[in-house]
Design a protein that fits this description.
- The complex is a heterodimer of chains A (200) and B (251).
- Chain A is α/β, with parallel strands linked by helices and 200 residues long.
- Chain A is 20% helix and 26% strand.
- Chain A has 4 helices and 12 strands, in the order E-H-E-E-H-E-H-E-E-E-E-E-E-E-E-H.
- In chain A, 54% of the residues are buried.
- Chain B is an alpha/beta fold and 251 residues long.
- Chain B has one domain: Aldolase class I (TIM Barrel, Alpha-Beta Barrel), CATH 3.20.20.70.
- Chain B has an 8-stranded parallel barrel, surrounded by 7 helices.
- In chain B, helix 1 packs parallel to helix 3.
- The two termini of chain B are 13 Å apart.
- Classes of the chains: A alpha/beta (200), B alpha/beta (251).
- At the A-B interface, helix 1, strand 7, strand 8 and helix 4 of A face loops of B.
Chain lengths: 200, 251
């Protein structure tokens, strides 16, 4: 049972459909207590970082408790950004702080547009459980204006005006800035990898 | 490097893909879900489904069609045509659309873009702009190209961006269905004015038209229908053509 947290930040139909395609039906917990049964947690999200304020309090506590039990967690897009300490997009809203650093707006330079929308290639510097089987330079679909900093927990980087964390991985906490559910074969591979991690 | 996107457009009427010239004279080109499957296999980057007659005939985009197309795809899907209210957008999104295209309704009330982006994020809101050259300016038309408005395409693009649109689907009515090439002047005028991506549409006939619209037209993506519909492997061959000319594409 993998939980998909619906905190009102966008449409979850495609995320559900992507997981269904790799054989996992997600459930939507109605209350933080419903996370007790989860063997995996997906934190999706699009839009402004301020939307993650809905996760503060009981949801954050339940998620931290699940992480402490070893339950794998996958943040997607805004869900990845929320795993960091915060974002310049909404300075008053704290992230989970599982990864150090804050998200910042991508620089608008060299004629590049922000938001960063479309297919861009991944650089995978070292072996990753989440990205197992995803080729170096595989292209995935992004749509975002803010991005997370790279550090030693970065599983993949991407570049658009600046190098940023496209995927992160530390223990049982994972995140992707792109949309695996919209990224064709490499994306489905990542969802399948996460489902296998959740099934232990 | 960010790839230039190739987007296949399925103009749908009564559950079938149709294609017209200058927005008129529609003819049948097949089953939407079957075409979506083929394009996906060929490596198309995105699919747009437009209910081309929805605004005129007062119908919503067919949710069954959206559902059937969405079931075939793990790439972004945009739905447009007849989306006038938040409820219309919600119905399209619940049926499987990742983005909704809004045209006439946004012209009548730009706050629709604001409300949709507040609810779904600006990445889900595409403003569709139909323009043609009138007296040496780019005039915006509404209601499937049938009704002239007082707006200029560049000014409207900037206003739509400020109102919450996350992308612009820019169609040249003059070029639509003519296979005579994209309107690169129109595309470049809009694309250099805004910071959101611009999808060029209308006029694709040859592979070199795509090269032109990415280079001279400064397009972030290019949309076509018949170029892809009537020729097998066109997507694969077009991508190779563009790659050979130094244009970044997803292969």
């Amino acid at each position: 049972m993998i939980a998909l947290i619906d905190y009102g930040a966008g449409n979850l139909t495609s995320v559900r459909k992507g997981f269904a395609a790799v054989g996992a039906e997600l459930y939507t917990p109605a209350t933080p207590r419903d996370l007790e049964a989860a063997r995996g947690i997906v934190v999706p999200g699009v839009g402004n970082f301020a939307a993650t304020s809905a996760l503060q309090g009981p949801w954050t506590e339940a998620i931290q408790s699940a992480i402490a039990r070893g339950v794998p967690l996958l943040g997607i897009c805004l869900g990845l950004q929320w795993l960091f300490e915060g974002s310049d997009e909404a300075p008053d809203v704290n992230g989970l702080g599982a990864f150090s650093g804050k998200c910042a707006r991508l620089p608008q330079k060299d004629g590049l547009k922000v938001p960063h929308v479309g297919w861009n290639s991944l650089h995978v510097p070292h072996a990753s459980r989440l990205l197992d089987g995803v080729a170096e330079h595989a292209q995935v679909y992004f749509t975002h204006s803010y991005a997370a900093p790279t550090n030693r927990e970065t599983a993949a980087t991407c570049e658009h005006g600046a190098v940023f964390a496209a995927a992160i991985e530390s223990g049982n906490i994972f995140g992707v800035q792109f949309h695996p559910e919209k990224s064709s074969e490499p994306g489905l591979r990542i969802l399948r990898n996460f489902v296998q991690l959740a099934r232990g | 490097m960010l790839s230039k996107r190739l987007i296949a457009c399925l103009d749908v009427r009564s559950g079938c893909v149709v294609k017209g010239v200058n927005f008129e004279g529609l003819r049948n080109a097949g089953d939407p879900a079957a075409l979506a499957r083929r394009y996906n296999q060929e490596g198309i980057d995105e699919v747009v489904v437009l209910d081309v007659t929805a605004t005129l005939e007062g119908r919503r985009a067919f949710e069954d069609t959206i559902r059937a197309v969405s079931a075939e795809l793990f790439i972004p899907l945009t739905v447009g045509g007849g989306i006038r209210t938040e409820a219309d957008a919600a119905a399209a999104i619940e049926a499987g659309a990742d983005k909704v295209g809004v045209n006439s309704a946004a012209l009548a009330d730009p706050t629709l873009l604001t409300r949709l982006s507040a609810r779904y994020g600006s990445q889900a809101v595409v403003v569709a702009i139909d323009a043609r050259v009138v007296d040496r300016r780019f005039q915006v038309f509404s209601r499937s190209g049938s009704t002239p408005t007082a707006r200029d395409a560049v000014e409207w693009a900037l206003e739509a961006e400020a109102s919450g649109a996350g992308e612009i689907l820019l169609t040249s009515i003059d070029r639509d269905g003519t296979r005579s090439g994209f309107d690169c002047a129109l595309t470049a005028a809009v694309s250099t004015a805004v910071s959101i991506p611009v999808i060029a549409s209308g006029g694709a006939g040859t592979f070199d038209h795509f090269t032109e619209v990415f280079n001279q037209g400064r397009a972030d993506a290019a949309l076509a229908a018949s170029v892809f519909h009537y020729s097998e492997h066109a997507v694969t061959e077009l991508k190779r053509h563009l790659k050979d000319r130094g244009i970044p594409v997803r292969c």
